[in-house]
Design a protein that fits this description.
By secondary structure, this protein is an alpha+beta fold. Helix content is 55%, strand content 16%. Strand 2 and strand 3 form a beta hairpin.
C-alpha cells in the first residue's frame, strides 16, 4: 500500500486510539479493535497497516492471538491530533 494513494480520515484514526486508550491493558485483539472502530475489515486493515507503517501502532502476537497497541510515538501523535482537532472545532479543552 502506498501512503500517497491512501488518505486517512483523522477522525477514524482518533477512533483507533480512543478504543485502545479505553481498554484495560492498553491493547486490544485485532478483531475487537476492528469491531469497536465500526469499520469493515478491508478499511480497517488499510488504516492499521498505515498506522503500523508510520510506527504509531504495533502488532503483538501471543500464541495464536494478535493484539494491537499504541507506540509511545503513537500516543504523542494522538495527543497532538486531539489538540489540533479541538483547535479546528474552536474548543478550549486540552486532553
Amino acid at each position: 500500500m502506498s501512503g500517497s494513494t491512501f488518505k486517512p480520515d483523522p477522525y477514524i484514526v482518533a477512533r483507533f486510539y480512543d478504543r485502545l486508550q479505553r481498554s484495560k491493558e492498553g491493547r486490544l485483539k485485532r478483531t475487537r479493535l476492528q469491531v469497536s472502530t465500526g469499520l469493515n475489515w478491508s478499511i480497517f486493515t488499510r488504516y492499521l497497516d498505515r498506522l503500523v507503517e508510520l510506527g504509531l501502532l504495533e502488532v503483538e502476537e501471543e500464541g495464536k492471538e494478535i493484539f494491537i497497541r499504541s507506540t509511545p510515538k503513537g500516543k504523542e501523535f494522538y495527543r497532538s491530533l486531539l489538540i489540533r482537532l479541538e483547535q479546528l472545532l474552536g474548543t478550549d479543552r486540552n486532553p
